[in-house]
Amino acid sequence: MAEPIRVLVTGAAGQIAYSLLYSIAKGDVFGKDQPLVLLLLDITPMLPVLEGVVMEMQDCALPLLREVIPTDKEDIAFKDLDAAILVGSMPRREGMERKDLLKANVAIFKSQGEALDKHAKKTVKVLVVGNPANTNCLIAAKSAPSIPKENFSCLTRLDHNRACFQVAMRCGISANVVKNMIIWGNHSSTQYPDVHHCKVNVQGKDVPAFDAVKDDAWLKGDFISTVQQRGAAVIKARKLSSAMSAAKAICDHMRDIWTGTAEGEFISMGVYSTGNPYGVPEDLIYSFPVSIKDKTWKIVEGLAINDFSRAKMDATAAELVEERDTAVSFLGV
What is its EC number (predicted)? Predict the structure, then answer.
């Protein structure tokens, strides 16, 4: 058996974590022969709930789970980490200005970035889920100068998966034969789900998505707005935000970091934009198409970008620049 790896989930008493922890602990993410120590961080008032989660984790009697450590202390939670999944963030409350939300989250992710810097392994892979995920991820990365920026990513895989299923449903096929979907930009309603490079396997043959769907107006209209607004639609229906689907996307994202992407295929994740080949402004966490090998992502190069795509990519970048500038002003640097 391999040595156990140390995996942190923050916001661990919340509903995303409740859907996520079982999948991690049973080996769906880091491998069926990789033992784990799970560290569960939440705020002090949530500790009694967290104790219940710990009991349930123990009661699953999972062979890979060596230890579960609940805590409200960052120095314990971030110690010697191999992977950190930062789910906890300040949710937007009614009547709250976006600026106030950013300010509250800058404080959280600055503190967690500093804890990563001080206590985690320098090889730690950090996935930020808590919204605004892109900017929270950037703040965490800036607050952990000794950890490479490439080790930080934010979750746009949920948007990616949503887009894949919409195309699959339209074509009457299963979602796993929809490949090379792209989410560009921010995990917000300005994101751009792009099908121009997407392939769909129909009767054993790879076909461009536009040819398979045969409805350009839908692909350039309702498809995009459905994916952009899907989170809000789930909240409207459930009165709660996406949890099961978010947990599944987190598993997909981390598993791809750990085991890599298939040859010729790419997925979407929010990564550091500096040096990118698509004219996206530097110093952002922006969602790109990436391929992954040896736990290292690489932005897929050479994809043709038409005017329609360019305008949407620029619009979401502009939102991220504004978010970053506001957030950085709160950092006091």
Answer: 1.1.1.37
Predicted local confidence at residue 333, as pLDDT:
52
196 is known as an active-site residue: no
Q: Which CATH class is domain 5-154?
A: alpha beta
Please indicate if the annotation marks 162 as binding a ligand.
yes
3-state secondary structure of 183: strand
| pTM (predicted TM-score) | 0.97
Query: How high is the pLDDT of residue 93?
Result: 75
Q: Say what the pLDDT of residue 97 is.
A: 79
| Domain range annotation of the chain | 5-154, 156-323
CA 131 to the chain's CA centroid: 10
Is 300 annotated to bind a ligand? Reply is: no
Surface-to-core class of residue 263, CB atoms within 10 Å of its CB (0-12 exposed, 13-18 middle, 19+ buried): exposed
Distance CA 131, CA 35 (A): 30
Low-confidence ranges of the chain (pLDDT < 70): 333
pLDDT of residue 331: 87
Name which of 10, 56, 317, 12 is nearest 188 in CA terms: 317
131 is in an annotated binding site: yes
